[in-house]
Amino acid sequence: MKSDETLTSPAQSSIASGEPVPRVVMVAAYRFPHGDAMSNRLLQLARSATPPGATTVIVNDWPGTERPPEPVTLPPELRLITLFTTDGGGRVRRWVRRQSRPLRVLGALRQAGVPTGEVTGICLPLGLWNLSTWIVLRLTMRCPLTVDVLERHEPGQFRHGRLTPYFIRHRWHSLLAGRLADRVIAISTTLQRRLARPNRPILVVPPQVDCADYRQPAPSSLTNGLRLLYAGTAGPKDRLAAVLEGIRRLPEPERQRVRLTVAGMTQEQAAAMSDLDDTVMADLTDQIVFLGRVSRNRVLAELRTAHYSVLVRPTGGYADAGFPSKVPESLAAGCPVLLNHTSDLATYIDDGREGIVLTGPDADDVRDGLRRALTLDDAQWWQMSRRARERASAFDYRAWMPTVSAFVAGRPTGQDQVSTQGRLHTPRREQ
Length: 431
Hints:
By secondary structure, this protein is an alpha/beta fold. Helices cover 36% and strands 17% of the residues. The chain has helices spanning 37-48, 91-99, 101-111, 131-141, 165-180, 189-195, 240-248, 252-255, 267-273, 278-283, 296-305, 317-321, 326-332, 345-348, 363-374, 378-392, 397-408; strands spanning 5-8, 22-28, 55-61, 78-84, 121-125, 145-149, 183-186, 202-204, 226-231, 258-263, 288-292, 308-311, 337-340, 355-358, 423-424. The strands form two sheets. It has a nine-stranded mixed sheet with strand order 1-4-3-2-5-6-7-8-15, with helices on both faces. Strands 11-10-9-12-13-14 form a six-stranded parallel sheet, with helices on both faces. Helix 14 (345-348) links the parallel strand 13 and strand 14. The chain is globular and about 65 Å long. Residues 1-5, 9-17 and 415-431 have low confidence and may be disordered.
Protein backbone atom coordinates (compact mmCIF):
# COMPACT_ATOMS: atom_id res chain seq x y z
CA MET A 1 0.00 0.00 0.00
CA LYS A 2 1.39 3.36 -0.97
CA SER A 3 1.96 5.79 1.83
CA ASP A 4 -0.57 8.54 2.28
CA GLU A 5 0.24 12.05 1.23
CA THR A 6 -0.79 15.06 3.27
CA LEU A 7 -2.18 17.98 1.31
CA THR A 8 -2.57 21.36 2.94
CA SER A 9 -3.23 24.81 1.69
CA PRO A 10 0.08 26.76 1.89
CA ALA A 11 -1.51 29.24 4.29
CA GLN A 12 -2.72 26.43 6.50
CA SER A 13 0.21 24.02 6.47
CA SER A 14 1.63 24.76 9.91
CA ILE A 15 1.11 26.82 13.02
CA ALA A 16 3.49 29.74 12.87
CA SER A 17 4.72 31.72 15.84
CA GLY A 18 2.10 34.13 17.06
CA GLU A 19 -0.84 32.35 15.43
CA PRO A 20 -3.77 31.20 17.59
CA VAL A 21 -3.17 27.83 19.21
CA PRO A 22 -5.56 25.10 18.01
CA ARG A 23 -8.03 24.20 20.73
CA VAL A 24 -10.20 21.68 18.88
CA VAL A 25 -9.49 19.02 16.26
CA MET A 26 -12.28 17.80 13.98
CA VAL A 27 -11.70 14.51 12.14
CA ALA A 28 -13.74 13.50 9.07
CA ALA A 29 -13.66 11.51 5.85
CA TYR A 30 -15.82 13.55 3.48
CA ARG A 31 -15.40 15.38 0.19
CA PHE A 32 -14.89 18.45 2.33
CA PRO A 33 -15.47 21.32 1.81
CA HIS A 34 -17.21 20.79 -1.52
CA GLY A 35 -20.83 21.23 -0.68
CA ASP A 36 -22.70 18.07 0.29
CA ALA A 37 -24.80 17.91 3.45
CA MET A 38 -22.11 16.12 5.50
CA SER A 39 -19.48 18.69 4.52
CA ASN A 40 -21.81 21.53 5.43
CA ARG A 41 -22.45 19.91 8.80
CA LEU A 42 -18.70 19.64 9.44
CA LEU A 43 -18.03 23.23 8.36
CA GLN A 44 -20.64 24.88 10.56
CA LEU A 45 -20.03 22.57 13.53
CA ALA A 46 -16.31 23.37 13.35
CA ARG A 47 -17.06 27.08 13.30
CA SER A 48 -19.37 26.84 16.30
CA ALA A 49 -16.81 24.71 18.17
CA THR A 50 -14.11 27.39 17.87
CA PRO A 51 -13.86 29.79 20.83
CA PRO A 52 -13.12 33.44 20.02
CA GLY A 53 -9.42 33.96 19.33
CA ALA A 54 -8.74 30.24 18.89
CA THR A 55 -8.41 27.92 15.92
CA THR A 56 -9.90 24.57 14.94
CA VAL A 57 -7.97 22.11 12.81
CA ILE A 58 -9.96 19.86 10.47
CA VAL A 59 -8.16 16.67 9.47
CA ASN A 60 -10.07 15.21 6.55
CA ASP A 61 -9.27 11.75 5.16
CA TRP A 62 -10.35 12.25 1.54
CA PRO A 63 -12.52 9.32 0.35
CA GLY A 64 -11.55 7.60 -2.88
CA THR A 65 -8.33 7.73 -4.83
CA GLU A 66 -8.82 10.74 -7.11
CA ARG A 67 -6.89 13.85 -6.16
CA PRO A 68 -9.03 16.36 -4.25
CA PRO A 69 -10.08 19.54 -6.10
CA GLU A 70 -8.21 22.75 -5.51
CA PRO A 71 -8.63 24.00 -1.93
CA VAL A 72 -11.31 26.59 -1.31
CA THR A 73 -10.99 29.51 1.05
CA LEU A 74 -12.14 28.62 4.54
CA PRO A 75 -12.98 31.00 7.40
CA PRO A 76 -9.77 32.22 9.06
CA GLU A 77 -10.48 30.38 12.32
CA LEU A 78 -10.32 27.00 10.53
CA ARG A 79 -7.26 25.14 9.25
CA LEU A 80 -7.63 22.20 6.90
CA ILE A 81 -5.34 19.20 6.55
CA THR A 82 -6.39 16.80 3.79
CA LEU A 83 -5.10 13.24 3.72
CA PHE A 84 -5.36 11.12 0.61
CA THR A 85 -3.90 8.09 -1.07
CA THR A 86 -3.60 7.17 -4.74
CA ASP A 87 -3.87 3.45 -4.02
CA GLY A 88 -7.42 2.27 -3.40
CA GLY A 89 -6.57 -1.42 -3.07
CA GLY A 90 -9.04 -4.15 -2.21
CA ARG A 91 -11.18 -4.73 0.83
CA VAL A 92 -8.26 -5.66 3.08
CA ARG A 93 -6.30 -2.54 2.20
CA ARG A 94 -9.33 -0.33 2.68
CA TRP A 95 -9.91 -1.98 6.09
CA VAL A 96 -6.28 -1.35 7.06
CA ARG A 97 -6.63 2.23 5.93
CA ARG A 98 -9.67 2.74 8.15
CA GLN A 99 -8.00 1.12 11.15
CA SER A 100 -4.82 3.17 10.71
CA ARG A 101 -6.68 6.48 10.36
CA PRO A 102 -6.01 7.70 13.93
CA LEU A 103 -2.27 7.14 13.50
CA ARG A 104 -2.29 9.01 10.21
CA VAL A 105 -4.24 11.84 11.84
CA LEU A 106 -1.66 12.13 14.60
CA GLY A 107 1.15 12.10 12.05
CA ALA A 108 -0.52 14.87 10.06
CA LEU A 109 -0.96 17.00 13.18
CA ARG A 110 2.72 16.61 14.05
CA GLN A 111 3.76 17.46 10.50
CA ALA A 112 1.60 20.58 10.59
CA GLY A 113 3.17 21.70 13.87
CA VAL A 114 0.01 21.32 15.93
CA PRO A 115 0.92 20.89 19.64
CA THR A 116 -1.32 17.97 20.53
CA GLY A 117 -0.79 18.56 24.23
CA GLU A 118 -2.68 21.84 23.95
CA VAL A 119 -5.70 20.44 22.11
CA THR A 120 -8.72 20.72 24.39
CA GLY A 121 -11.17 18.55 22.47
CA ILE A 122 -11.58 16.16 19.53
CA CYS A 123 -14.79 15.65 17.59
CA LEU A 124 -15.49 13.05 14.93
CA PRO A 125 -18.60 11.65 13.22
CA LEU A 126 -20.18 8.35 14.17
CA GLY A 127 -19.00 6.68 10.95
CA LEU A 128 -15.34 7.02 12.02
CA TRP A 129 -15.85 5.78 15.56
CA ASN A 130 -14.20 2.40 16.07
CA LEU A 131 -12.04 0.69 18.68
CA SER A 132 -8.70 1.60 17.14
CA THR A 133 -9.70 5.27 16.92
CA TRP A 134 -10.82 5.35 20.53
CA ILE A 135 -7.73 3.57 21.86
CA VAL A 136 -5.18 5.64 19.93
CA LEU A 137 -6.77 9.03 20.56
CA ARG A 138 -7.54 8.24 24.21
CA LEU A 139 -3.92 7.25 24.90
CA THR A 140 -2.29 10.15 23.08
CA MET A 141 -4.53 13.21 23.25
CA ARG A 142 -5.77 13.16 26.85
CA CYS A 143 -8.78 15.36 26.12
CA PRO A 144 -12.53 14.74 25.75
CA LEU A 145 -13.58 12.71 22.70
CA THR A 146 -16.92 13.81 21.27
CA VAL A 147 -18.88 11.87 18.67
CA ASP A 148 -21.36 13.62 16.36
CA VAL A 149 -24.37 11.35 15.70
CA LEU A 150 -26.60 12.33 12.79
CA GLU A 151 -28.80 9.30 12.15
CA ARG A 152 -30.00 5.91 13.24
CA HIS A 153 -30.62 3.55 10.36
CA GLU A 154 -33.39 0.96 10.35
CA PRO A 155 -33.22 -2.50 8.68
CA GLY A 156 -36.14 -1.62 6.40
CA GLN A 157 -34.04 1.01 4.65
CA PHE A 158 -31.85 -1.67 3.07
CA ARG A 159 -32.54 -4.39 0.55
CA HIS A 160 -30.94 -7.09 2.70
CA GLY A 161 -32.18 -5.71 6.01
CA ARG A 162 -30.07 -6.54 9.04
CA LEU A 163 -27.59 -8.48 6.89
CA THR A 164 -26.50 -5.38 4.98
CA PRO A 165 -22.80 -4.72 5.78
CA TYR A 166 -23.32 -0.96 5.98
CA PHE A 167 -26.17 -1.43 8.48
CA ILE A 168 -24.06 -3.80 10.60
CA ARG A 169 -21.17 -1.30 10.70
CA HIS A 170 -23.55 1.53 11.55
CA ARG A 171 -25.05 -0.31 14.51
CA TRP A 172 -21.59 -1.43 15.69
CA HIS A 173 -20.30 2.13 15.62
CA SER A 174 -23.43 3.27 17.46
CA LEU A 175 -22.85 0.66 20.16
CA LEU A 176 -19.22 1.70 20.61
CA ALA A 177 -20.06 5.39 20.69
CA GLY A 178 -22.79 4.78 23.24
CA ARG A 179 -20.31 3.03 25.54
CA LEU A 180 -17.00 4.83 24.97
CA ALA A 181 -17.53 8.46 23.92
CA ASP A 182 -16.90 11.09 26.59
CA ARG A 183 -19.51 13.37 25.09
CA VAL A 184 -22.13 13.08 22.37
CA ILE A 185 -23.55 15.62 19.99
CA ALA A 186 -26.89 14.40 18.65
CA ILE A 187 -28.81 15.97 15.80
CA SER A 188 -32.22 15.28 17.36
CA THR A 189 -33.87 14.67 20.71
CA THR A 190 -34.81 11.15 19.55
CA LEU A 191 -31.12 10.29 19.26
CA GLN A 192 -30.50 12.06 22.55
CA ARG A 193 -32.92 9.73 24.32
CA ARG A 194 -31.42 6.64 22.70
CA LEU A 195 -27.85 7.57 23.59
CA ALA A 196 -28.48 8.80 27.14
CA ARG A 197 -26.12 7.31 29.75
CA PRO A 198 -25.63 8.28 33.39
CA ASN A 199 -23.13 11.13 33.80
CA ARG A 200 -22.41 11.37 30.06
CA PRO A 201 -23.45 14.77 28.64
CA ILE A 202 -25.37 14.90 25.39
CA LEU A 203 -25.90 18.10 23.44
CA VAL A 204 -28.59 18.34 20.76
CA VAL A 205 -27.33 20.45 17.83
CA PRO A 206 -29.61 20.62 14.79
CA PRO A 207 -28.19 21.30 11.31
CA GLN A 208 -26.51 24.69 11.29
CA VAL A 209 -26.29 27.40 8.67
CA ASP A 210 -24.48 30.66 8.08
CA CYS A 211 -27.34 33.09 7.53
CA ALA A 212 -24.92 35.54 5.90
CA ASP A 213 -24.60 33.13 2.95
CA TYR A 214 -28.20 33.71 1.87
CA ARG A 215 -29.52 36.57 -0.23
CA GLN A 216 -32.98 38.08 -0.05
CA PRO A 217 -35.69 35.95 -1.69
CA ALA A 218 -36.90 37.02 -5.14
CA PRO A 219 -39.88 34.90 -6.21
CA SER A 220 -42.41 35.89 -8.84
CA SER A 221 -45.90 36.97 -7.82
CA LEU A 222 -48.24 34.23 -6.66
CA THR A 223 -50.69 35.44 -9.27
CA ASN A 224 -48.37 33.80 -11.81
CA GLY A 225 -48.57 30.44 -10.03
CA LEU A 226 -47.07 28.54 -7.11
CA ARG A 227 -43.41 27.51 -7.45
CA LEU A 228 -42.28 24.53 -5.35
CA LEU A 229 -38.78 23.13 -4.88
CA TYR A 230 -37.65 19.70 -3.77
CA ALA A 231 -33.88 19.54 -3.25
CA GLY A 232 -32.18 16.23 -2.51
CA THR A 233 -32.25 12.59 -3.48
CA ALA A 234 -35.59 10.94 -2.85
CA GLY A 235 -35.76 7.45 -1.44
CA PRO A 236 -37.53 5.74 1.45
CA LYS A 237 -36.92 8.73 3.72
CA ASP A 238 -38.47 11.37 1.40
CA ARG A 239 -41.90 10.68 -0.07
CA LEU A 240 -41.53 12.49 -3.38
CA ALA A 241 -44.21 10.24 -4.89
CA ALA A 242 -46.74 11.58 -2.35
CA VAL A 243 -45.84 15.14 -3.37
CA LEU A 244 -46.44 14.40 -7.05
CA GLU A 245 -49.65 12.54 -6.38
CA GLY A 246 -50.83 15.39 -4.17
CA ILE A 247 -50.30 17.83 -7.05
CA ARG A 248 -52.12 15.46 -9.39
CA ARG A 249 -55.17 15.30 -7.09
CA LEU A 250 -55.70 19.05 -7.15
CA PRO A 251 -58.73 20.25 -9.14
CA GLU A 252 -57.62 21.02 -12.67
CA PRO A 253 -57.64 24.85 -12.44
CA GLU A 254 -55.53 24.74 -9.26
CA ARG A 255 -53.22 22.05 -10.56
CA GLN A 256 -52.29 24.16 -13.57
CA ARG A 257 -51.02 26.89 -11.23
CA VAL A 258 -48.42 24.61 -9.56
CA ARG A 259 -44.87 24.05 -10.79
CA LEU A 260 -42.36 21.75 -9.06
CA THR A 261 -38.58 21.80 -9.57
CA VAL A 262 -36.60 18.75 -8.45
CA ALA A 263 -32.93 19.57 -7.83
CA GLY A 264 -30.58 16.65 -7.20
CA MET A 265 -31.97 13.92 -9.47
CA THR A 266 -32.92 13.22 -13.03
CA GLN A 267 -36.35 11.81 -13.73
CA GLU A 268 -34.80 8.38 -14.33
CA GLN A 269 -32.94 8.48 -11.03
CA ALA A 270 -36.06 9.55 -9.18
CA ALA A 271 -38.03 6.67 -10.68
CA ALA A 272 -35.35 4.19 -9.66
CA MET A 273 -34.94 5.51 -6.12
CA SER A 274 -38.57 6.02 -5.12
CA ASP A 275 -42.06 4.71 -5.84
CA LEU A 276 -42.94 7.23 -8.54
CA ASP A 277 -45.78 6.08 -10.75
CA ASP A 278 -45.35 6.38 -14.52
CA THR A 279 -48.98 7.44 -14.90
CA VAL A 280 -48.52 10.29 -12.46
CA MET A 281 -45.36 11.41 -14.25
CA ALA A 282 -47.18 11.37 -17.59
CA ASP A 283 -50.00 13.52 -16.21
CA LEU A 284 -47.58 16.09 -14.76
CA THR A 285 -45.03 16.31 -17.57
CA ASP A 286 -45.54 20.05 -18.10
CA GLN A 287 -45.48 20.89 -14.40
CA ILE A 288 -42.29 19.19 -13.18
CA VAL A 289 -38.69 19.98 -14.05
CA PHE A 290 -35.87 17.60 -13.06
CA LEU A 291 -32.53 19.41 -12.91
CA GLY A 292 -30.36 16.41 -12.07
CA ARG A 293 -27.36 16.88 -9.78
CA VAL A 294 -26.56 20.57 -9.42
CA SER A 295 -24.15 22.73 -7.43
CA ARG A 296 -25.02 24.18 -4.07
CA ASN A 297 -25.04 27.65 -5.64
CA ARG A 298 -27.72 26.49 -8.07
CA VAL A 299 -29.80 25.12 -5.18
CA LEU A 300 -29.53 28.47 -3.39
CA ALA A 301 -30.60 30.23 -6.57
CA GLU A 302 -33.64 27.95 -6.86
CA LEU A 303 -34.54 28.61 -3.22
CA ARG A 304 -34.53 32.36 -3.90
CA THR A 305 -37.19 32.01 -6.59
CA ALA A 306 -39.34 29.28 -4.99
CA HIS A 307 -42.40 30.01 -2.88
CA TYR A 308 -42.06 26.81 -0.84
CA SER A 309 -39.60 23.99 -0.43
CA VAL A 310 -41.40 20.68 0.07
CA LEU A 311 -40.45 17.83 2.37
CA VAL A 312 -42.72 14.89 3.13
CA ARG A 313 -41.38 12.07 5.28
CA PRO A 314 -42.87 8.99 6.97
CA THR A 315 -43.29 9.34 10.70
CA GLY A 316 -41.17 7.42 13.18
CA GLY A 317 -37.97 5.43 12.71
CA TYR A 318 -35.20 6.94 10.64
CA ALA A 319 -37.09 10.17 9.92
CA ASP A 320 -37.53 10.96 13.62
CA ALA A 321 -33.93 10.13 14.48
CA GLY A 322 -32.45 12.50 11.90
CA PHE A 323 -33.07 16.15 11.14
CA PRO A 324 -33.36 17.33 7.51
CA SER A 325 -30.66 19.91 6.80
CA LYS A 326 -32.70 21.28 3.90
CA VAL A 327 -35.17 22.84 6.37
CA PRO A 328 -32.73 25.31 8.03
CA GLU A 329 -31.30 26.12 4.58
CA SER A 330 -34.74 26.87 3.21
CA LEU A 331 -35.62 29.06 6.18
CA ALA A 332 -32.35 30.99 5.87
CA ALA A 333 -33.17 31.65 2.21
CA GLY A 334 -36.55 33.06 3.22
CA CYS A 335 -38.32 30.18 1.50
CA PRO A 336 -41.08 28.81 3.75
CA VAL A 337 -41.46 25.05 3.98
CA LEU A 338 -44.40 22.81 3.18
CA LEU A 339 -43.91 19.69 5.28
CA ASN A 340 -45.26 17.28 7.85
CA HIS A 341 -43.80 17.26 11.35
CA THR A 342 -41.13 14.63 12.01
CA SER A 343 -38.03 14.68 14.22
CA ASP A 344 -37.83 18.04 16.06
CA LEU A 345 -39.43 20.09 13.28
CA ALA A 346 -42.42 20.99 15.45
CA THR A 347 -40.02 22.91 17.69
CA TYR A 348 -39.12 25.26 14.84
CA ILE A 349 -41.97 25.24 12.30
CA ASP A 350 -45.41 26.58 13.24
CA ASP A 351 -48.26 26.15 10.81
CA GLY A 352 -48.95 29.42 9.02
CA ARG A 353 -45.81 31.15 10.32
CA GLU A 354 -42.62 29.63 8.90
CA GLY A 355 -44.47 27.33 6.54
CA ILE A 356 -47.50 25.15 5.99
CA VAL A 357 -47.63 22.03 8.15
CA LEU A 358 -49.36 19.02 6.62
CA THR A 359 -51.56 16.82 8.78
CA GLY A 360 -49.74 13.71 7.54
CA PRO A 361 -47.40 12.26 4.92
CA ASP A 362 -49.98 11.09 2.37
CA ALA A 363 -50.98 12.49 -1.01
CA ASP A 364 -54.29 13.87 0.27
CA ASP A 365 -52.41 15.74 3.00
CA VAL A 366 -50.13 17.27 0.35
CA ARG A 367 -53.14 18.23 -1.79
CA ASP A 368 -54.81 19.96 1.14
CA GLY A 369 -51.63 21.86 2.01
CA LEU A 370 -51.21 23.01 -1.57
CA ARG A 371 -54.79 24.26 -1.70
CA ARG A 372 -54.04 26.39 1.36
CA ALA A 373 -50.89 27.75 -0.25
CA LEU A 374 -52.80 28.64 -3.40
CA THR A 375 -55.18 30.86 -1.41
CA LEU A 376 -52.40 33.17 -0.18
CA ASP A 377 -51.68 36.56 -1.68
CA ASP A 378 -48.23 38.10 -2.06
CA ALA A 379 -48.41 40.11 1.20
CA GLN A 380 -49.26 37.00 3.21
CA TRP A 381 -46.44 35.06 1.58
CA TRP A 382 -43.88 37.78 2.29
CA GLN A 383 -44.91 37.83 5.94
CA MET A 384 -44.32 34.07 6.07
CA SER A 385 -40.95 34.52 4.32
CA ARG A 386 -39.83 37.10 6.89
CA ARG A 387 -40.77 34.79 9.73
CA ALA A 388 -38.83 31.98 8.09
CA ARG A 389 -35.68 34.11 7.99
CA GLU A 390 -36.20 35.11 11.60
CA ARG A 391 -36.52 31.46 12.63
CA ALA A 392 -33.32 30.61 10.73
CA SER A 393 -31.34 32.57 13.33
CA ALA A 394 -31.93 29.64 15.71
CA PHE A 395 -29.81 27.51 13.37
CA ASP A 396 -27.04 30.04 12.70
CA TYR A 397 -23.67 28.71 13.87
CA ARG A 398 -22.96 31.98 15.70
CA ALA A 399 -25.86 31.35 18.09
CA TRP A 400 -24.31 28.00 19.00
CA MET A 401 -20.68 29.08 19.48
CA PRO A 402 -20.67 29.55 23.28
CA THR A 403 -22.43 26.24 23.93
CA VAL A 404 -20.71 24.01 21.37
CA SER A 405 -17.17 25.32 21.96
CA ALA A 406 -17.51 24.78 25.71
CA PHE A 407 -19.14 21.38 25.28
CA VAL A 408 -16.49 19.91 22.98
CA ALA A 409 -13.71 21.13 25.27
CA GLY A 410 -15.40 19.59 28.32
CA ARG A 411 -16.03 22.92 30.02
CA PRO A 412 -19.25 24.05 31.71
CA THR A 413 -21.58 25.47 29.10
CA GLY A 414 -23.26 28.08 31.24
CA GLN A 415 -26.53 26.21 30.89
CA ASP A 416 -28.14 24.32 33.72
CA GLN A 417 -30.23 21.90 31.66
CA VAL A 418 -28.08 18.87 32.47
CA SER A 419 -30.34 16.22 33.94
CA THR A 420 -29.39 13.44 36.32
CA GLN A 421 -28.98 11.26 33.25
CA GLY A 422 -26.36 13.58 31.83
CA ARG A 423 -28.48 14.97 29.01
CA LEU A 424 -27.95 18.50 27.84
CA HIS A 425 -30.92 19.99 26.05
CA THR A 426 -31.06 22.45 23.18
CA PRO A 427 -31.59 26.16 23.80
CA ARG A 428 -35.25 26.96 24.41
CA ARG A 429 -37.26 28.08 21.47
CA GLU A 430 -38.09 31.76 21.28
CA GLN A 431 -41.76 32.49 21.81
